[in-house]
Amino acid sequence: MSAQNTTDVPEEVVEELKVRNHSRAIFKPDANKQLHISLIQKFRFRKSKSNAAIILKIDVKDLKVVVEEILEDTTIEDVAEALPDSTPRYIVLSYELKHKDGRVSYPLVGIYYNPTGSSTANRMLYASTNSYLFQKADIAGKIFDLNDSEDLTDEWLTEKLEGSKTRP
């Protein structure tokens, strides 16, 4: 992947990992600290009127968030199938939400996928980067936690969006 599609793990997380020795990754102090969110910005303003997802993971070696897969014109079931069984992921999802009054909207949703079978070190690393990543991606109010990929369905997502504090 190009450097344009990565973001660094926050410095305080790296320091915490160094102190607790939870990661074997070598941290390079001179690494670029700028967040590159142009891909997510382009994704937010895409013209297509269908579901699409960006699945992100942390490259533990470099401690950077990188794009694992981009799914265009997809279903929620396809996104769920693309998730690993035992490793956390971040999902940025452009979702076609059909409202009860007939309107259709396309909210940008952040999903933190944290399966129960993942290692403690991975869970800690992903959890500590979660809010930073979605904040920098300018996704607020529509960030949901998911522990089992089988729970990721249209019904689950619609219920979450209708219950969110911001307008879907």
UniProtKB/TrEMBL annotation:
Does the record bear NADP in its keywords? no
The protein's GO terms of the molecular function aspect are:
actin binding; Arp2/3 complex binding
Where is the protein localized? Answer: Cytoplasm; Nucleus
Q: Where's it mainly located?
A: cytoplasm
Q: Where is the ADF-H domain?
A: 28-162
Its Gene Ontology biological processes? actin filament debranching; negative regulation of Arp2/3 complex-mediated actin nucleation
Give the UniProt keywords, A-Z: Cytoplasm, Nucleus
Q: Which domain of life is it from?
A: Eukaryota
> What's one Pfam family here?
Cofilin_ADF
- Any one Gene Ontology cellular component term annotated for this protein: cortical actin cytoskeleton
Question: Matching PROSITE patterns, A to Z?
Answer: ADF_H
Against PANTHER family, the record matches this protein to: GLIA MATURATION FACTOR, GLIAL FACTOR NATURATION FACTOR
Q: Which family does it belong to?
A: Belongs to the actin-binding proteins ADF family. GMF subfamily.
Q: What is this protein called?
A: ADF-H domain-containing protein
